[in-house]
Design goal:
This protein is an alpha/beta fold and about 600 residues long. The chain has 13 helices and 30 strands. The chain has four domains: about 220 residues, Aldolase class I (TIM Barrel, Alpha-Beta Barrel), CATH 3.20.20.70; about 90 residues, no CATH class; about 80 residues, Thrombin, subunit H (Beta Barrel), CATH 2.40.10; about 100 residues, no CATH class. The longest helix has 22 residues.
Length: about 600
């Protein structure tokens, strides 16, 4: 059967274990250094602990080492990859092509979305040079994914949930251009979440002080079936900087969605075990800026979160009336003391307050300022749901069976799990005859069915005794305990990690000339491209100092489309005076529109 993976984020070892407990088939976690989230690095010790835990469930651990590297960092990066391999990690996610020139252990390498995996030609090249998986650009449509699948064989991973980078990943130089770090070096300053005004060539303001580059969050839960048919085998949740409640909630939500989609197909989940939930997951009850399906289906205006870059949570009702110290809320949802609520005021500014007390539809809050009749209320902090997640007893268990068979010197205990791992051992027993055979048999099954805090769920106990033997409860408990310990060790011993050694070749790159947008920062990356036929190489943006007229962002999000001025999509396009500019408190950035390819570029 073809295996399908749910891939969840791990800020640290605790978050990673939670992701696995709540249904992830794999987790991705930051390397000690050189990960694309500089503030989310982890020690080798913690990565090792998470990997060992994951492998008990035949889940996998991937480590992000996906920044571009300076020459002085190459040796250290190579050493880290060897260390990760020695700790049992299943794959390393990379951006820098120089890594493919290193002396590496046989560990699979995945092409980070920051290698801009947008065309089937690029993805085919990455497959041909030895990448074992390609993490696709978020901007792709279902039809584009189908085309990529039809022309490649490499494993395809796709983001299905979480925050969206407005720029094509790997092609955003905004932070570096304004001297606030580099996204390709793991230090994105999130300039896309700031306020901007849209100004025309005459200096007239078309839009004032809005989050014109800040996107809503991605939610493709309604497209799981379509993505499976299109050829996606790994469904990725964004969020290595999100809190643990987000990880629990969103992982659980997609686990159930994917399991439902796998029913009746020749597909199965990648890892082992069943999750027993004690809550109902709901993506709207944790961090979100409202949701969009982005471009997976078609271009639409429902992608921009222009009024706020913050979480708004879940819409719960409309204000029907305002009173001296409370308001009446028309809602089917129940607010609770301690909830955080937010709303947009008459100027479309996000405001927030805290619920102090509720009395049926009466809501007493910290402040009634700016709340008016007709105001839509959102809950962005759900105290009951958060407490439910914090105290959740959700567990993941691997199905197993235990059998006990009589032998000359006592009994033989056997155990087998859902992956056909097997153990057996003999127990010496004097074979004391039970005074009450039925009760003795019942006792054996009852004690051996218990699984306690082990990773197993004992589905069945088979007892085959010629003699009605009496076992003290302590002896039965010891049998069960030993069986489950041995079975877990057997599982871990039998886990087979995929290994792959890259064999260097000279398959031609897509072009013999590359610009700074290929992010070539070191001598090994240059060597890689030269070996693949590139004769002209421009150094990475991070190695340059003159940014004048350079693209600092390339995006499929288009402000001409957003304001109704697109010649392609609008029958009566709004007339504007070009060029257009984005303006903040410090600078103006010229916008350039590539209408043929439906792209917008932000330039210095």
């Amino acid at each position: 059967m073809n295996k399908i993976e749910l891939l969840a984020p791990a800020k640290n070892v605790e978050f990673g274990m939670a992701a696995i407990n709540y249904g992830a088939d794999a987790v991705y976690i930051g390397s000690p250094k050189f990960g694309a989230r500089v503030s989310a690095g982890n020690s080798l010790h913690d990565i090792s602990a998470l990997t060992k835990y994951a492998h008990k469930y035949y889940a996998k651990t991937y480590v992000t080492l996906n920044t571009i590297l300076f020459d002085k960092e190459l040796d250290e990066a190579q050493t880290i990859i060897h260390q990760l391999y020695n700790e049992g990690v299943d794959a390393v996610i990379v951006q820098d092509m120089g890594i493919l020139e290193m002396d590496l252990p046989p560990i699979p390498l995945f092409a980070s979305t920051q290698t801009h995996n947008y065309s089937w030609e690029k993805i085919k090249f990455l497959e041909n040079v030895g990448l074992q998986r390609v993490i696709l650009a978020r901007e792709l449509s279902l039809n584009q994914i189908k085309e990529i699948r039809s022309k490649t064989n490499v494993d395809l991973e796709f983001f299905v949930h979480g925050a969206l980078c407005v720029s094509y990943s790997g092609k955003c130089y905004f932070s570096r251009a304004i001297n606030k770090g580099s996204a390709n070096r793991g230090a994105c300053a999130q300039a896309c979440r700031a306020y901007y005004s849209l100004v025309d060539a005459k200096g007239d303001t078309l839009i004032k002080d809005k989050h014109l580059l800040s996107l809503k969050d991605l939610n493709l839960s309604d497209y799981i079936d379509d993505l499976l048919k299109a050829g996606i085998s790994s469904f990725k949740i964004e969020g290595r900087l999100k809190d643990i409640d987000y990880v629990k909630n969103i992982t659980s939500f997609y686990r159930q969605k994917i399991d439902n989609s796998l029913l009746g197909t020749n597909l199965c989940k990648e890892s082992s075990g069943k999750v027993y939930y004690d809550f109902t997951p709901d993506p709207k009850r944790t961090f979100n800026r409202d949701y969009t399906s982005y471009f997976v289906d078609k271009r639409n205006k429902n992608i921009l979160s222009e009024h706020t870059q913050k979480s708004i949570g879940k819409k719960i009702g409309i204000v029907r009336s305002i009173h001296k110290n409370y308001f009446i809320l028309d809602s089917t949802e129940k607010l609770n003391n301690g909830d955080g609520i937010c709303f947009f005021d008459s100027d479309n500014k996000l405001q927030g307050t805290k619920v102090n007390k509720t009395d049926n539809k009466k809501i007493f809050s910290d402040s009634l300022k700016n709340i008016k009749t007709g105001t839509e209320i959102y809950r962005n902090f759900d105290i009951v749901f958060n407490k439910l997640l914090a105290t959740s007893k959700t567990i993941r268990k691997i199905t197993a069976k235990i059998s006990i068979v009589e032998i000359d010197k006592g009994v033989k205990v056997k155990a087998v799990d859902e992956d056909n791992n097997r153990i057996e051992f003999d127990v010496i027993n004097k074979k004391e005859i039970a005074k009450n055979p039925e009760r003795a048999l019942e006792n054996i099954k009852k004690q051996l069915e218990k699984s306690g805090d082990s990773i197993f769920n004992i589905e069945k106990v088979d007892v085959s005794l010629e003699t009605s033997i009496f076992f003290p409860i302590s002896e039965l408990n010891n049998m069960r305990r030993q069986a489950l310990i041995l079975l877990e060790k057997e599982r871990v011993k039998n886990y087979k990690r995929s290994e792959f050694e890259i064999i260097k070749n000279d398959i031609p790159y897509l072009s013999n000339t590359i610009t700074y947008k290929e992010n070539t920062l070191n001598k090994l990356a240059e060597k890689f491209y030269k070996r693949h036929g590139v004769t002209q190489i421009e150094k990475a943006f991070e190695a340059q100092s003159d940014f004048k007229d350079k693209d600092i962002m390339q995006t499929k999000h288009c402000l001409k489309y957003q304001i109704g001025a697109c010649l392609k999509y609008h029958n009566n396009p709004k007339k504007i005076s070009e060029p257009l500019f984005l303006k903040d408190n410090n600078r103006k950035y010229r916008l350039e529109f590539d209408c043929k390819n439906c792209q917008m570029k932000v330039k210095m």
